[in-house]
């Protein structure tokens, strides 16, 4: 089991965010496609389309994990909604963070598998491979659940001299 990971995530001042976007995702697997489309549109608006492949792969894995492992088992609920998975994209000058919030208090579990032909179980390995760092932390207060995040370093803009 992984302990909450905060190391590797540089201090991020929310007031210094240059761009932020967020969307709620329904509790169905089509939400992965919706998350990729939302991410693609957002990266294009932020002129980060060249990061599309890596970022969308990581977003797909984080959302898939949230849908597969973090939602309560389907049960007849009367007057109660399953809390949605929520995707947050935040951009600072030199970094992009993708964060997926879900209602589970369970930590993400990276599987040890040497079977590279397996059709599942490699999500967090891919997140680790394609992002610069990743981690998770529990949410405090009435929200409950957790946030799993991935950090992408962006090239520094060249200053005009």
**Through-space gap between termini:** 50 Å
Output mean pLDDT. 80
**Strand-pairing-aware structural class:** alpha+beta
Strand content: 15-25%
Taking the sheet with the most strands, its summary is: 5 strands, antiparallel
Quantity of strands, as a count: 5
Number of separate helices: 3
Question: Helix and strand succession?
Answer: EHHEEHEE
Name the shape in a single word: globular
Measured on Cα atoms, how large is the radius of gyration?
A: 16 Å
Helical residues, percent? 25-40%
Strand order of the largest sheet: 1-2-3-5-4
Describe this protein's structure.
- This protein has 161 residues and is α+β, with helices and mostly antiparallel strands.
- The protein is 26% helix and 23% strand.
- The chain has three helices and five strands, in the order βααββαββ.
- It has helices at 30-45, 52-69, 123-130, and strands at residues 19-25, 85-92, 95-102, 133-138, 146-153.
- A five-stranded antiparallel sheet has the order 1-2-3-5-4, with helices on one face.
- Strand 4 (133-138) and strand 5 form a beta hairpin.
- Helix 1 runs antiparallel to helix 2 (52-69) and helix 2 packs antiparallel against helix 3 (123-130).
- The radius of gyration is 16 Å and the shape is globular.
- The model is unreliable at 1-8 and 75-79 (pLDDT under 50).
